[in-house]
Amino acid sequence: MSALSYVSADNNSPWKTYLSQVERVLPYLGEVSRWADTLRHPKRALIVDIPLEMDDGSVRHFEGYRVQHNLSRGPGKGGVRYHPDVTLEEVMALSAWMTVKCAALNLPFGGAKGGIRVDPRELSLKELERLTRRYTSEIGTIIGPQQDIPAPDVGTNPQVMAWMMDTWSMNTGATSTGVVTGKPVHLGGSLGRVKATGRGVFVTGRVMALRIGLPLENCRIAIQGFGNVGSVAAGLFAEAGSLITAVQDHSATLYHPDGIDIPALTEWQRQNGSISGFKGATAVNHDAFWGYDYDILIPAALEGQITAERAGKLRCRLVLEGANGPTLPVADDILRERNITVVPDVICNAGGVTVSYFEWVQDFSSFFWSEDEINIRLDHIMEQALLAVWQKSQTLKVTLRTAAYAVACERILIARKERGIYP
Ligand code: NAD
């Protein structure tokens, strides 16, 4: 294995977490493990400078990235993150998780991801548009409906995707809706896309809760992150009769032993931009979030949140990884020893990329499906993928994460082997 010169020494970085997850699956890959170095080397990483004229006439520069981790199974697929702490290494890890996720779900995509080091909340709408358009132009040479198809992630949304689609289309001279997914519905977006990731968390959670004998009725759930993923998952679990007893976002932590009114909190968050100040629950200390008794924990914010210390004191039976990379490898070991089941990110939050795949197919055929059709196909694909991974975990006697990596990495490395090395 040759180490990359551009990765940091931080052992808890998302990239190191990903590498360690790959190490764990190698013993189960058989003959194709000889190609495993492919997984440790992103195919292409582009760093771009984005000069932005601010509304007051000053100019600021932002750093942007697009990483294509692996394209053996198809065009790159993966979101774009706007967050002040984004780094190249984080985007590398997120792109690698997309490779694994698309393969685990058997979608015909490789893995990619993008990001800009920016706090979008500090920009006006016009500044955000100019930033997005310049970023799209800068990465325009490597994206495209057949090359690499961006989508929303933390800090981006359908409007950002509309600007990306328009910019790429203007630069190439023809409207090309399939260059990004997660677009507004009247611009070739898919029904069901906005809710798809949260829905996938719910669907996989329902299957796994049944497996471990945990009824959803009155089951207590804590959710970290109340954005696109967390709020939708919270709504669906609440509709199924679960009690969402704790919710945390960047601004506050709320607790209510009888369950928080999720529609009311969602409306509050929509109007105020965060959950802070909501009156229907008690505001508690940020760290208290990890100390309560729950049945299910849903991390749906950022990476590295379940540390060894938190894994040691968590009192729950099931963790549903809505976020990408929320559990450090050392914490994974502790959760396994403590018999806490983890549905890993590469399965649990794959609802978004699955409906993105539907959107891409619909854009190519210019024929659009009903929301019911989308949800039925989504639920089916997610349930089947999870059950295949469950079977694999039983056969190999490994965690669901290692089983998901076994299913996915075998597919990726077979594609790698069959395509061969050019020239
Ligand atoms: P979002 O921007 O809509 O919401 C992020 C949420 O996390 C917000 O509520 C924010 O306040 C909260 N948050 C940020 N920093 C926090 C902190 N330090 N402590 C507690 N909460 C914090 O983003 P999203 O689209 O919901 O994505 C959330 C996670 O899900 C990310 O890991 C993302 O990569 C992953 N994901 C998203 C999608 C998708 O379709 N949007 C698909 C797959 C995975």
TrEMBL record:
GO terms for molecular function: glutamate dehydrogenase (NAD+) activity; glutamate dehydrogenase (NADP+) activity; nucleotide binding. Pfam families: ELFV_dehydrog, ELFV_dehydrog_N. One of its GO terms (biological process) is L-glutamate catabolic process. Gene3D superfamilies: Leucine Dehydrogenase, chain A, domain 1 (3.40.50.10860), NAD(P)-binding Rossmann-like Domain (3.40.50.720). Substrate binds at K77, K101, S356. NAD(+) binds at T197, N228. The keyword NAD applies. Keywords: NAD, Nucleotide-binding, Oxidoreductase. It comes from the Bacteria. The keyword Hydrolase does not apply. The record marks D153 as: Important for catalysis. Residues 190-420 form the Glutamate/phenylalanine/leucine/valine/L-tryptophan dehydrogenase C-terminal domain. It catalyses: L-glutamate + NADP(+) + H2O = 2-oxoglutarate + NH4(+) + NADPH + H(+). The active site is at K113 (proton donor). Catalyzes the reversible oxidative deamination of glutamate to alpha-ketoglutarate and ammonia. PANTHER family: GLUTAMATE DEHYDROGENASE, GLUTAMATE DEHYDROGENASE 1, MITOCHONDRIAL. Belongs to the Glu/Leu/Phe/Val dehydrogenases family. This is Glutamate dehydrogenase. It comes from Candidatus Pantoea deserta.
